[in-house]
């Protein structure tokens, strides 16, 4: 059923090794330690209505060294966070411990959530540049894993690079792709990022209660 061919396996391995190299080399370029304002606005509210999202259960995909998982825990969320690279998860554990934040950090693959202890349901999924780097043959499994774990009306806040932005054949994500792949979800917002190349913040809502 879930049997990748050799090329697909090679592609997954190449991605994993490249990510591991970044973490072994020191601080990866994306590891800013800053929670993006788009997540802050969702969690704490913005504008006159200060429409903060009530805390619930959150699952972060590709959490890196845990900056945003810790942020969510500090704002009352029950957080599970997953990353493919063990070194990233080790650093995230250190960060959470130093912050006194209760975050459940899991080393594993966001496209194989059934192999992890993360049954959900979750009210919020957060993905900051993880999905857009996942090889295409694993993306349906990613969407299915989130769909199975989504509480009614759950949100997915995702940041992704546009296609052709990174130096490989497959990285990138578009609104059309998410609409097609996340059946049963509604793409409720697409906001361009502020980078000098195409990036997007996507908000999706899982089927209503
Ligand atoms: C560009 S980094 C961003 C990390 C973190 N979200 C941040 O902003 O600091 C992408 C992260 O996703 C992780 N990742 C990539 N593919 C993954 C997968 N299939 N499952 C879990 N994590 C993955 C990488 O190891 C990396 O930590």
Give an overview in words.
The chain has 209 residues and is an alpha/beta fold. 32% of the residues lie in helices and 24% in strands. The chain is built from six helices and seven strands. It has helices at residues 6-24, 37-44, 67-74, 86-99, 139-149, 175-181; strands spanning 57-61, 78-83, 103-107, 122-128, 150-161, 185-192, 199-206. Strands 3-2-1-4-5-7-6 form a seven-stranded mixed β-sheet, with helices on both faces. Strand 1 (57-61), helix 3 (67-74) and strand 2 (78-83) form a beta-alpha-beta unit. It starts with 5 loop residues before the first helix and ends with a strand. The chain binds S-adenosylmethionine. S-adenosylmethionine binds next to strand 2.
Annotate the secondary structure layout.
Layout: H1 6-24, H2 37-44, E1 57-61, H3 67-74, E2 78-83, H4 86-99, E3 103-107, E4 122-128, H5 139-149, E5 150-161, H6 175-181, E6 185-192, E7 199-206
Parallel strand pairs: 1-2, 1-4, 2-3, 4-5
Antiparallel strand pairs: 5-7, 6-7
The protein binds S-adenosylmethionine.
């Amino acid at each position: 059923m879930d049997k990748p061919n050799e090329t697909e396996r090679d592609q997954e391995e190449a991605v994993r090794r490249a990510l591991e190299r970044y973490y072994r080399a020191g601080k990866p370029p994306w590891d800013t330690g800053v929670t993006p304002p788009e997540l802050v606005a969702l969690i704490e509210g913005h504008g006159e209505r200060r429409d903060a999202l009530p805390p619930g259960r959150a699952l972060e995909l590709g959490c890196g060294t845990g900056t945003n998982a810790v942020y969510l825990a500090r704002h009352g969320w029950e957080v599970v966070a997953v990353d493919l690279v063990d070194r990233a998860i080790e650093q995230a554990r250190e960060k959470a411990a130093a912050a006194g934040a209760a975050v459940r950090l899991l080393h594993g693959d966001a496209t194989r959530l059934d192999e992890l202890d993360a049954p959900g349901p979750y009210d919020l999924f957060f993905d900051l540049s993880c999905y857009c780097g996942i090889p295409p043959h694993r993306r349906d499994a990613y969407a299915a894993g989130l769909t199975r774990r989504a509480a009614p009306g759950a949100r997915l806040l995702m940041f992704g690079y546009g296609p052709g932005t990174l130096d490989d054949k497959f990285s990138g994500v578009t609104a059309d792709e998410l609409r097609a792949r996340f059946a049963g979800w509604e793409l409720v917002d697409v906001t361009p990022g502020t980078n000098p190349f195409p990036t997007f913040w996507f908000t999706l809502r899982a089927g209503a209660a």
